Amino acid sequence: MSEWNSSGDWNDPAKSAPERETARPEQAAGSAVTDSRVLEKLVGALTAEQRRSRRWGIFFKLLTFAYLIALLFLFRVPLTGGLDGDRATAHTAVVEVNGAIASDTHASADNLVGALRRAFEAENARAVVLRINSPGGSPVQAGYVYDEIVRLREQHPGKKVYAVISDIGASGAYYIAAAADEIYANRASLVGSIGVVSGGFGFTGLMDKAGVERRLYTAGENKAFLDPFSPEEPQEVAFWESVLENTHDQFIEYVRKGRGDRLADDERLFSGLVWTGEQALELGLVDGLGSTSWVARELVGAEDIVDYTPQPSPFRQFTDALGVSIVGALRTEMVESRYDLR
Q1: Is the pLDDT of residue 326 over 80?
Q2: Torsion, CA 228, CA 231, CA 234, CA 239, rounded to 10
Q3: Element housing 132 (H / E)
Q4: 171 catalytically annotated
Q5: How many CB atoms lie within 10 A of CB 96?
Q6: Which one of the listed residues 36, 223, 257, 293 is annotated catalytic?
Q7: Each residue of 166-198: b (16+ CB within 10 Å) or e?
Q8: Strand partners, 3
Q9: Which residue has the higher pLDDT, 129 or 311?
Q10: Contact of 204 with 229, CB cutoff 8 Å
C-alpha cells in the first residue's frame, strides 16, 4: 500500500529504496530555495515594519512635545491678553460692555474700570465710547462702573463719554449707560428694562409626592431665609420684596441723576419694560440714533477707533470654544438664586 510522505512523494513498496533515495536530494534542494525566499520576505517585512514603527514613534514624540509647549505657553500668558493701546494720533477710545455683567465675566467691574481708566488717561483719545451689548446683570458691578465713570468725567472734564447700544442695552447695562454724557442706539436696539428681578424654585410639592422630608437645623431665626425646600413664609417674602424695591429705587435714582430732564414724564419708564431704539428716543432714554463709527466720525471728530477693552487670553478663548462658558451661564441662570437688574 502506498503512503504520502512529507517530501511530496508516495512511499510505494514496489519502488526500490535506491530509486527513492535518488529523488530526495533534488526535492530537498527545491525546498531549501523556497524556504530561503520565504525567510527573505519575512526579514524584509520585519525591517519595513520596524521603519514604520520608528517613524510613528518620532511623529508622536514631536506631537507630545508640541502639545507640552502649547500648554506651557497657555499657562504662562495672563488671563487677559493685550490691548490695541494708545496711539500717537487722535482717536476715539472704545470700551466694550459685552455679555452679562458679573464679577466672573468679561464685563466685570474690574475689567471695565481698568479699561475706562486707560481710555481716559490716553492723551490722544478725544472721547470715550461705551459700546454696549448686554442684557444686564449684577447691580453691584453696574454700580461700581457707574461711579467710576462719574469720577473719571470729573477728573477729565474735556473728554466726553458716549454710550452706544447695539443689540441690547437693558437693565444693569442701561444703568451703566446712564452715567454717560449722551446715549445712542440703533432704531431696533432693545433699551431699558429698568427693574429688578429675583427668582428661584420651590420643591415642597414634589417632596411631598416623593415622600421626602426636609430636615434643616439653623442658629438664627432667619438663617434658612427663603429655603427652596421649605414652604414660603409670608414675612420672608415681604422682607425680600422690600430688598428688591430698595434696589429698584437706587436704580431709578441713578438713571434720573444721569438723564435729568431728558426723561419723559411716563410712569412706564421704570416698570421693567424694554423699548426699541426709536421708542427709547421718544421717552428720553437715548439722545439719538447712531452707531459707534457714526459717533466717532460725526460727534467726536476722530474716526480712528482704538479698543481699550482687555482681550481674553488664548487659554480663555480655548475653554470658551469648548463650551465652558455655556455651562457656566446655565449654572448661573438655572441653579443659583440671585437678584439682578433686568
Answers
A1: no
A2: -20
A3: strand 125-134
A4: yes
A5: 22
A6: 223
A7: bebbbbbbbbbbbbbebbbbbeebbbbbbbbee
A8: 11
A9: 129
A10: yes
pTM (2 decimals)? Answer: 0.68
* Tens of pLDDT, residues 23-61: 455 555 566 667 677 777 777 777 877 887 787 778 777
Could you report the per-residue pLDDT of 64-123, keeping only the tens digit for each? 877 777 666 655 544 444 445 556 689 999 999 999 999 999 999 999 999 999 999 999
- Can you read off the three cell numbers belonging to residue 321? 470654544
Residue with cell 465710547: 129
198-251 tens-digit pLDDT: 888 888 888 888 888 888 888 988 888 888 888 888 898 999 999 999 999 999
Told to judge if 257 belongs to the known catalytic residues of this protein, a careful annotator would answer no
According to DSSP, the residues that pair with 190 across neighbouring strands are: 168, 276
- The partner residues of 160 in beta bridges, in order of sequence, read 127
- Whether the Cβ atoms of residue 171 and residue 194 lie closer than 8 Å to each other: yes
Report the C-alpha gap between 155 and 178 in whole angstroms: 18
Of 108, 134, 138, 171, the catalytic one is: 171
Give the integer Cα–Cα distance in Å for 110 and 235.
37
* % of the chain beyond a pLDDT of 70: 75
DSSP state of 67: H
Find cell 429705587 and name the residue: 249
Apex 296 CA angle, 291 and 301, nearest 5: 145
Q: Which of 101, 118, 97, 109 is nearest to 147 (CA)?
A: 109
Please give the distance of CA 86 from its chain centroid, rounded to a whole number: 26
